[in-house]
From TrEMBL:
Domain of life the protein comes from: Bacteria
Location of the Histidine kinase domain: 118-333
PROSITE patterns from the UniProt entry: HIS_KIN
Protein name: histidine kinase
Broad enzyme group: transferase
Lineage, broadest ranks: Bacteria, Pseudomonadati, Campylobacterota, Epsilonproteobacteria, Campylobacterales
Record keywords, A-Z: ATP-binding, Coiled coil, Kinase, Membrane, Nucleotide-binding, Phosphoprotein, Transferase, Transmembrane, Transmembrane helix, Two-component regulatory system
Reaction equations catalysed: ATP + protein L-histidine = ADP + protein N-phospho-L-histidine
SMART domains: HATPase_c
PANTHER family xrefs: PEROXIDE STRESS-ACTIVATED HISTIDINE KINASE MAK3, SENSOR HISTIDINE KINASE
Single annotated GO MF: ATP binding
Transmembrane segments: 7-28, 48-65
Coiled-coil residue spans: 75-102
E.C. designation(s): 2.7.13.3
């Protein structure tokens, strides 16, 4: 772009250079030699040479003026282009963030059907117990044994069962509620929440889940989003175990610390990922499942949440008889991160 200071410095350099040339020519009596040359060569006139120099000077000045004007026009256009480009970049970033948030919600909605099945499973036992309480009240009444103490005891038991059922609904509702701000939380808490939400499906398919937590590890970010990313990985392992007909399915989750980083490993025995698709599993809408059985956004959203929203890393590696997802997160600097 046009730089006034650079133009002034170029002008000063030109003046100094002209003075140097003038001094050198004066030292060697160049002007007298020129006059002698003109006197001995009548075909050249002094006024003609001066006129030539004047014309050359005028043309040079005009050329320099045109260059300065062109440079200013170019600078003005570049400035407008930069402003337009900055706005476009900002708009694209905002658009991408909105798309990521929409995909996070889509991922949650995709899991909602399975979550409803888990709610039904977790409600089955308390509903059976509640039915027994009602039958017990009816039986006591038919035998004339329904007194105030008996009735109060059964009512308290029924209230306890309905409270637990209500808490189950609250747990699922809170899971689907978007996080408003980042916070510091224990690593194991969102992992346990994710396991709780899917354990009914795991039990149904006879998939064993093992955990090993270092309970004092803390990270900084969106707890519900992180729980969603863990749930997506566990759900992916569960689907792979079912699809590959693994009779004794296992999922192992371990958290530990290496230097200033927290490592989360999620292992399965589903047979591993084929080499030709390993580089694609984190891409959006990539899935190996049959049509209608998967949207292909679960692992992509896990990667987006962990790497973009929590400044972490996620990778997959082969292990005997399966795969291992490795999540690497920095231990929060409480003062800097909260700012």
């Amino acid at each position: 772009m046009f730089n006034k200071l650079k133009s002034i410095s170029d002008l000063i350099i030109s003046i100094v250079f002209s003075i140097v040339i003038w001094l050198v020519l004066g030292h060697y009596d160049a002007f007298e030699k020129l006059m002698y040359f003109l006197r001995t060569h009548e075909e050249y006139e002094l006024d003609e040479l001066l006129l030539l120099l004047m014309v050359f000077g005028i043309i040079s000045i005009f050329y320099i003026y045109r260059r300065v004007v062109e440079q200013r026009v170019i600078n003005s256009q570049l400035k407008k282009l930069n402003e337009t480009l900055e706005q476009k970049v900002k708009n694209e970033i905002d658009k991408r963030r909105k798309q990521e948030q929409m995909l996070i919600q889509q991922s949650k909605l995709a899991a909602m059907g399975e979550m409803i099945g888990n709610i039904a499973h977790q409600w089955r036992q308390p509903l059976n117990a509640l039915g027994l309480v009602i039958q017990n009240i009816q039986f006591s009444y038919s035998r004339g044994e329904l007194n105030e103490e008996n009735l109060s005891r059964n009512i308290n038991k029924a209230n306890m069962l309905t409270t637990n059922m209500s808490n189950t609904i609250d747990d699922f509702r809170n899971f689907f509620k978007p996080d408003k701000q980042k916070e510091i939380f224990k690593v194991y808490e969102p992992i346990k929440k994710a396991i709780y939400l899917i354990e009914a499906t795991l039990e149904k398919n006879k998939i064993k889940i093992e955990t090993s937590f270092e309970n004092d590890l803390e990270i900084y970010g969106f707890e519900n989003e992180f729980s969603q990313s863990i749930l997506n990985i566990i759900s992916n392992a569960k689907d792979a175990i079912i699809e590959n007909n693994i009779s004794l399915g296992e999922i192992k989750i371990k958290t530990f610390k290496i230097e200033d980083n927290i490592i989360i490993e999620i292992k399965d025995n589903a047979g591993g990922v084929k080499a030709e698709i390993k580089d694609k599993i984190f891409e959006p809408y990539f899935t190996t499942k049959e049509e209608g059985k998967g949207m292909g956004i679960g692992l992509y959203m896990s990667k987006t949440i962990i790497e973009n929203n929590m400044d972490g890393q996620i990778n997959i590696k082969d292990i005997p008889n399966g795969s291992c997802f490795v999540i690497k997160l920095s231990i929060p600097n409480i003062k800097n991160d909260i700012r």
